[in-house]
Amino acid sequence: MAVDCIFCKIAAGSVPAEILYQDEDLVSFRDINPQAPVHLLIVPRKHITNLNDLSEDDSYLVGKMAKVAQQLALSEGISELGYRLVVNCGDWGGQLVKHLHMHIIGGRKLDGRLG
Ligand code: 5GP
Ligand code: ZN
Question: Closest ligand 1 atom, CA of 35?
């Protein structure tokens, strides 16, 4: 756990969040400032700053995050109409929280712009 990392604290249960899924590797919860009717985050329990710091040994986590996203999209009722998965990396990628995370955004028609 990284000191002063909000997502480490949520994963450890020391900061509250609406947890939707958790296992030994990952935790998912609702974004505190949703950009759409459904806006979830999936984070690894392990503190990894961003994709630049993903090691070979930890790379399975990203596939697992996508699989959990698929399941959460189904349970949130957004699978059929569609949704967006976003992983911001670094300052120019718009990453504010320096702990690897995947956004699941849906529940409305998203525009085509990516940046
Ligand atoms: P980023 O811009 O780093 O990709 O996105 C970080 C996301 O984390 C933002 O959408 C922001 O609203 C969300 N976030 C930041 N702090 C908290 C928090 O304490 N709790 C929850 N649930 N989400 C947070
Ligand atoms: Zn962290």
Answer: 10
The tally of CA atoms less than 13 A away on the side-chain side of residue 46 is 15
Task: Provide residues with CB under 6 Å of ligand 1.
Answer: 6, 17, 29-33, 41, 88, 94-97
Which ligand has the nearest atom to the CA of 33?
1
So what's the pLDDT on residue 31? 98
pTM exceeds 0.70? yes
> Using one digit for the tens of pLDDT, what is the confidence trace for 44-53?
999 999 999 9
- Cα–Cα distances (Å) from 89 to 48, 76, 96, in that order, read 11, 26, 9
